[in-house]
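In response to the reviewer comment on reproducibility (Comment 2.3), we provide here a single inverse folding case reported in full, input and output, so that an independent group could reproduce the run without further information from us. The structure tokens appear first.
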């Protein structure tokens, strides 16, 4: 094990900020998500794997919750009141067994894509056990344990304010480092965030797309930055619409700006998909004949953008050529590019590996795809995919009818967190290579499940109290 001084320094800074924010565990975990290419150590025993710093904060949270005095009582309460936790535990168990068994059971019977240690690139090879079976499964199990720990915290105490501040700190750090990267490249200073990029990932921070410098923020590449930007944007936009928060409004504007400038296909395709529910919501307001001030502002910005583009094109027909080339490169002609053809080939072969293993999958971490649903299907098989689908359905349904019993702030925070996780799933569905849905998914799952269970428990207590008072009155 080799430690990284810059990585440890970032961890210390996050811990200090989280401590003075009166929420070390939750706020520290959320803030660490902004550093998408910072590792505190290198695990030589796992093939040189460099876990990002969020894994340390997640492990700290799980350890701290486990050390609580009434941990077994709280754990039993979680498993007794949140039924979907049993699905999560079953999926974690299945992932562990599959990661060890399936690559050995189907060794050499199908083709997978793995990271080559010598070439530093993804290569095609016959199925066999690899170090990623251990590391990727470990990340997934850590995410599941974090979800259970957060359920224990959310179910037995009001932590919504900590969750809200943690998400805003994450969005603020992400936007801030994105702006640093953007202005540094515009000024010709290069990658200003290079000192904190301590992970052993392939760094594509100096890439150029159609003449535009790609924005990577604190991540290793523009695609990962764009995926995180979409999640942050979904949180800030939802919270702004629910609470009229000026902070959320400005953060949403900055994040939209950075998402567009990231020059990532993930950003543009994901943003298009996320605009669909927004368009439906605004269309419903038009049909009802009731416009909110925020919707009028969005319409005005869109109209101003259209008029500006038309005006520029009329003044100088060639002024928009760089942007047209960018759209052609990242969206229209992406599938025909060498990168697009390679990723399509990954997906086709991943689906073939699902068939070659009779629907059982190749095991967690055994292969790489270019779309999260395909990665889930190929690695976890049909049975594991069904369990993942149930967990996603829990997230999509949200708190349901329990929303009527929530205070406005709790409703706004949980809905915003839920939408951020769904935006992350959309981004991963465009370009995600692993079956792991990511730490944000587990955080949102815990927030939604625990809030719903807590509201249901409150109703039960009220009914019991009313029944007791009625009995005494009779």
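Designed residues, in position order:
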């Amino acid at each position: 094990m080799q430690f990284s001084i810059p990585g440890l320094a970032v961890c210390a800074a996050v811990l200090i900020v989280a401590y003075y924010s009166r929420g070390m565990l939750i706020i520290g975990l959320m803030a660490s998500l902004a550093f998408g290419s910072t590792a505190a150590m290198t695990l030589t025993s796992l093939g040189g794997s460099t876990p990002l710093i969020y894994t340390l904060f997640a492990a700290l949270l799980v350890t701290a919750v486990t050390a609580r005095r009434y941990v077994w009582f709280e754990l039993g309460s979680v498993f007794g009141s949140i039924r979907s936790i049993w699905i999560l535990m079953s999926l974690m168990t299945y992932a562990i067994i599959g990661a060890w068994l399936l690559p050995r059971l189907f060794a050499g019977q199908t083709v997978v894509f793995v990271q080559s240690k010598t070439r530093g690139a993804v290569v095609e090879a016959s199925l066999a056990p690899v170090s990623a079976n251990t590391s990727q499964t470990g990340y997934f199990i850590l995410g599941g344990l974090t979800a259970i720990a957060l359920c224990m915290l959310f179910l037995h105490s009001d932590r919504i304010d900590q969750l809200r501040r943690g998400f805003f700190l994450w969005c603020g750090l992400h936007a801030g480092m994105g702006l640093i990267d953007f202005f540094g490249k515009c000024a010709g200073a290069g990658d200003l965030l290079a000192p904190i990029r301590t992970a052993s990932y392939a760094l594509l921070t100096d890439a150029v797309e159609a003449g535009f410098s790609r924005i990577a923020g604190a991540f290793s590449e523009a695609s990962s930055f764009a995926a995180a930007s979409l999640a942050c944007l979904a949180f800030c936009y939802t919270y702004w619409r629910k609470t009229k928060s000026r902070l959320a409004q400005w953060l949403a504007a900055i994040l939209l700006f950075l998402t567009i400038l990231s020059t990532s296909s993930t950003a543009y395709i994901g943003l298009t998909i996320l605009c669909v529910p927004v368009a439906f919501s605004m269309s419903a307001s038009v049909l009802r004949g009731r416009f909110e001030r925020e919707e009028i502002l969005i319409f005005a910005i869109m109209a101003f953008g259209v008029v500006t583009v038309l005006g520029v094109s009329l003044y100088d027909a060639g002024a928009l050529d760089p942007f047209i080339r960018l759209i052609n490169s990242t969206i229209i002609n992406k599938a025909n590019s060498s990168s697009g053809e390679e990723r399509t080939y990954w997906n086709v072969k991943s689906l073939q590996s699902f068939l070659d293993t009779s629907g059982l999958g190749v095991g967690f971490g055994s292969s790489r795809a270019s779309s999260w649903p395909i990665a889930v299907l190929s690695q976890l098989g049909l049975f594991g995919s069904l369990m993942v689908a149930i967990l996603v359905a829990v997230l999509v349904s949200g708190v349901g009818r329990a929303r009527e019993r929530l205070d406005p702030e709790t409703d706004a925070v949980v809905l915003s967190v839920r939408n951020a996780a769904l935006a992350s799933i959309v981004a991963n569905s465009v370009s995600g290579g692993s079956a792991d849905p990511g730490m944000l998914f587990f955080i949102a799952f815990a927030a939604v499940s625990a809030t719903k269970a807590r509201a249901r428990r409150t109703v039960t207590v009220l009914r019991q109290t009313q029944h007791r008072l009625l009995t005494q009155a009779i």
